[in-house]
Amino acid sequence: MDVQKVIHEQVTTNPVVLYMKGSPAMPRCGFSSMASQILKACGVQSYLAVDVLMNEDIRQGIKEYANWPTIPQLYVKGEFIGGSDIMKEMFDSGELKKLLDEVQA
């Protein structure tokens, strides 16, 4: 299956998807750690975490999918939200929690 199709299926069939380095329990970079901590702080109980270090095709493909050069990348209801810096700004303003609460309602 084409990697872009795989990514599209992941982001459209899961309400919250985080492409990261490592896993939420064992992040392998500080930005991925911060992203997973932000989701936890927003009360997100369950989400698809995709470890890009396990699949080079996904690692490169996700950068093309969103036209965004860095990882982590957060998707909510199929929409690209941003990386850890944008997540932090949205968390600080309360916007991210509101968005995530709507998805989990």
Secondary structure tally, helices: 5
Number of strands: 4
Mean pLDDT: 95
Overall body shape:
globular
Strand content: 15-25%
Q: Main β-sheet: number of strands, strand sense, barrel status?
A: 4 strands, mixed
User: Which structural class do you get from the secondary structure elements?
Assistant: alpha+beta
> For the CA atoms, what is the radius of gyration?
13 Å
Order of helices and strands: HEHEHEEHH
Name the poorly predicted regions: none
- The spatial strand order of the largest sheet comes to 2-1-3-4
Helix content: 40-55%
Polypeptide structure, described:
- α1 crosses α3 and α2 (30-41) runs parallel beside α4 (84-93).
- It contains 5 helices and 4 strands.
- β3 (73-76) and β4 (79-82) form a beta hairpin.
- 51% of the residues lie in helices and 16% in strands.
- The N and C termini lie far apart (33 Å).
- The protein has helices spanning 3-13, 30-41, 56-66, 84-93, 95-104; strands at 16-20, 48-51, 73-76, 79-82.
- The chain has 105 residues and is of the alpha+beta class.
- The protein has a 4-stranded mixed beta sheet with strand order 2-1-3-4, sandwiched between helices.
- The mean pLDDT is 95.
